[in-house]
């Protein structure tokens, strides 16, 4: 005689048990297991500390060599001092990849690859680019270090889609990128953009554009960003000058992370920089960006940057003009502002550096916003909040950021090298606050300032790993779910996907 199989719970009861367990697990997972973006640094305070140490070391070296001829090239800026003092830098261009700092410091660009010389400034065919053009160079699969044979203005027909492991190195030439779409970094990694002027970027698209030697696809309408970053990582933008674009000068959205924006010169624009897709897009909690040694100057209005979620380190920048605010945010981003100079505008209603966008004080009072060693000029004031007022930054504060009085020295070469750093001519288009287009289908990587809901995914904060006891609880509960799953008609009742 065979024993009768055990009676299984009623299907509705099984479903209730499963959903109850999931409801219990979700906050435990978020709090205890630090589900993060791939390549997100687990301890962002360590990265901030490393940046401070590099700045201090470069400034100390400059002081020690004050009586030496070499001090003429030293500024205390750790990026520039890494490569500019070598009189033969043009023969060792790829050394630049060793000079990064902050969250994007691991960006290799085309290091180790061959040198590709752009000799043709045209952009006639987006499907079959002409060899020798920038578009032909950036779509290749192999690592490339891309340089330019002469000064050139590249007027794009449509957005320039850059493949992984590329360096666009404009040193030694005056290189301008303008026109339709401008630069798109989408689903890629390890890109360095150096010494390029980007301006007058317009929306474009609804066409076929090649993104690799083996793939050309339909692109919807782009927003007209200067540099659009979408689901990408290990990126470094250095010594660029950006102005007069239709949407953002630099927008990074949809789970992008490990980014450094440094030594660049921003002018004549409304919404300068957006970091984060929308308030409900949880993967942007893993966004980590270093903004260092930049000049935010004439004709700027707001968003330097405007952040959603993530950890943003704003260090040793010069903010000389804004009309609304300098740094804004929503959805609880961490803002670590260190050693910057903020010069408020004459408008008595625009003296505040910070703005919590569409958020009540009851909600933002515990957001981690901190000012440390900043110089506040002409009535400027920074409103800190949350743990940024106390113990959260104890480690980062252990190395005092150098005085913002050295900002002139640290940002003296911000923007493109060897030429005018901005485009001061009044332009009749671009720089507007209105988004001119959005992604359609497989189209452009357009940013969003709305509240549209895209994929509700579970990603936690950057807190340290949980204790072993929490781990044991988690695996015990996970085992329970798996047992129930295997005993409910092979999981047929589990219509809700597990994102674990």
TrEMBL record:
Transmembrane segments: none annotated. Residues 151-348 form the Pectate lyase domain. Binds 1 Ca(2+) ion. Required for its activity. The keyword Metal-binding applies. Residues 1-31 form the signal peptide. Its cofactor is Ca(2+). Pathway: Glycan metabolism; pectin degradation; 2-dehydro-3-deoxy-D-gluconate from pectin: step 2/5. Keywords: Calcium, Lyase, Metal-binding, Signal. Pfam families: Pectate_lyase_4 (PF00544). Belongs to the polysaccharide lyase 1 family. PANTHER family: PECTATE LYASE (PTHR31683:SF11), PECTATE LYASE 18-RELATED (PTHR31683). This is Pectate lyase. It comes from Cinchona calisaya.
């Amino acid at each position: 005689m065979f024993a009768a199989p055990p009676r299984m719970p009623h299907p509705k009861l099984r479903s209730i048990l499963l959903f109850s367990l999931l409801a219990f697990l979700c906050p435990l997972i978020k709090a205890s297991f630090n589900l993060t973006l791939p390549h997100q640094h687990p301890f962002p305070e360590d990265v901030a500390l490393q940046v401070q140490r590099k700045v201090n070391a470069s400034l100390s070296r400059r002081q020690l060599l004050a009586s030496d001829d070499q001090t003429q090239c030293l500024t205390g800026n750790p990026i520039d001092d890494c490569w500019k003092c070598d009189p033969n830098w043009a023969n060792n261009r790829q050394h630049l990849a060793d000079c990064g700092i902050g969250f994007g410091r691991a960006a290799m660009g085309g290091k180790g690859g061959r040198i590709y010389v752009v000799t043709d400034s045209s952009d006639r065919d987006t499907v079959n680019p002409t060899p020798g053009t920038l578009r032909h160079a950036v779509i290749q699969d192999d690592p490339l270090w891309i340089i330019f044979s002469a000064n050139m203005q590249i007027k794009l027909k449509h957005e320039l889609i850059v493949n992984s492991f590329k360096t666009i190195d404009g040193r030694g030439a005056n290189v301008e990128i303008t026109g339709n779409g401008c630069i798109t970094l989408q689903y890629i990694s390890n890109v360095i953009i150096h010494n390029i002027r980007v301006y007058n970027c317009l929306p474009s698209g609804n066409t076929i554009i090649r993104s690799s030697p083996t793939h050309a696809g339909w692109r919807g309408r782009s927003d007209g960003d200067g540099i659009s970053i979408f689901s990408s990582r290990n990126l470094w933008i250095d010594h660029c000058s950006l102005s007069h674009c239709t949407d953002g000068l630099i927008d990074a959205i949809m789970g992008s992370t490990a980014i450094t924006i440094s030594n660049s010169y921003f002018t004549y624009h409304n919404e300068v920089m957006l970091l984060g897709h929308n308030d409900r897009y949880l993967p942007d909690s893993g966004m980590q960006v270093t903004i260092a040694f930049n000049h935010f100057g004439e004709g700027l209005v707001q968003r330097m940057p405007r952040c959603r979620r993530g950890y943003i380190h704003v260090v040793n920048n010069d903010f000389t003009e804004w009309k609304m605010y300098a740094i804004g945010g929503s959805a609880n981003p961490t803002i670590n502002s260190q050693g910057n100079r903020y010069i408020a505008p004459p408008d008595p209603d625009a003296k505040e550096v910070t703005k919590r966008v569409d958020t009540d004080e009851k909600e933002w009072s515990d957001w981690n916003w901190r000012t440390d060693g900043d110089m506040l000029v002409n009535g400027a004031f920074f409103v800190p909040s949350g743990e940024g007022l106390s113990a959260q930054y104890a480690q980062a504060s252990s190395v005092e950021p150098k005085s913002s009085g050295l900002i002139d020295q640290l940002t003296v070469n911000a923007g493109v090298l060897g030429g005018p750093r901005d485009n001061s001519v009044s332009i009749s288009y671009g720089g507007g606050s209105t988004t001119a287009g959005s992604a359609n289908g497989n189209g452009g990587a357009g940013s969003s300032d709305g509240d549209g809901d895209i994929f509700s995914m579970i990603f936690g904060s950057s807190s340290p790993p949980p204790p072993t006891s929490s781990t044991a609880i988690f695996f015990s509960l996970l085992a329970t779910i798996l047992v129930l799953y295997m005993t409910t008609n092979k999981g047929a009742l589990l219509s809700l996907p597990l994102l674990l």
